[in-house]
Amino acid sequence: MPRRRQIFEGKAKILYEGPEPGTLVQYFKDESNGLNVKSKGVITGKGVLNNRISEYLMMRLGEMGVPTHFVRRLNMREQLVREVEMIPIEVVVRNFAAGTFADIFRMSEGTPLPRSIVEYYYKSDDLNNPMVSEEHITAFGWATPQDLDEVMALSLRINDFLSGLFLGIGMRLMDLTIEFGRLWEDDQVRIVLADEICPDSCRLWDIRTNRRLELEGPEEDFGKLADAYQEVARRLGILPESGPIDMKGPESMQ
Length: 254
Known about the structure:
By secondary structure, the protein is α+β, with helices and mostly antiparallel strands. Helices cover 27% and strands 31% of the residues. It has five helices and 14 strands. The strands form three sheets. Strands 8, 9, 10, 11, 12, 13 and 14 form a seven-stranded antiparallel β-sheet that branches. It has a five-stranded antiparallel β-sheet with strand order 1-2-3-7-6. Strands 4-5 form a two-stranded antiparallel sheet. The longest helix is centred in the middle third of the chain and has 23 residues, at 145-167. The two termini are 27 Å apart.
């Protein structure tokens, strides 16, 4: 089997050159980060679960008309995606006060917000991913005002859909982190949802017990997080009770 050319490696994924022009292979790793970069661990099977969960959610969003970079799942840990020009901004949509947001505004965790709040963060580990405004984004040329209008509209649409989906399986979507890219097709460009959507990028609480299905503690809590990933997959109906084995996925979206 020929060796593939690695394009990029992040905390949770590796991108390889795709089998045809304009595509990439996205590989999901088992590594996980805690509340800071010093808190790291390996969750066996995490990459398999995130691959399946992200596939499922991307497919469902695609059915709702949300444009994404997802093409199809290739195997247990890899999926084929369209190559896009990433916008270097993380979009965070908050529905409830939680984490640092609750601390900053001195709110009790779990307090519903008056409406969904959208925040922007510049993707830079060296700068510790600072929060930025639309003025920063347009002034530094990371995105145009038209790009941001589309990003905002898509972010709220994605959040509304996923909030309802998770509510239906007994989970509250506290907040969501998503990323977007520019997909070039001939002379046309459009903004599409990129990267992934999985427990790494969603803060989920159980509705009945308020149990947190995300990492909120030190490194030794990674074992609990492994159970949470499996629970999310089971409730979505993509993981059998026997555990994270490979299964036939839904048909690819062209």
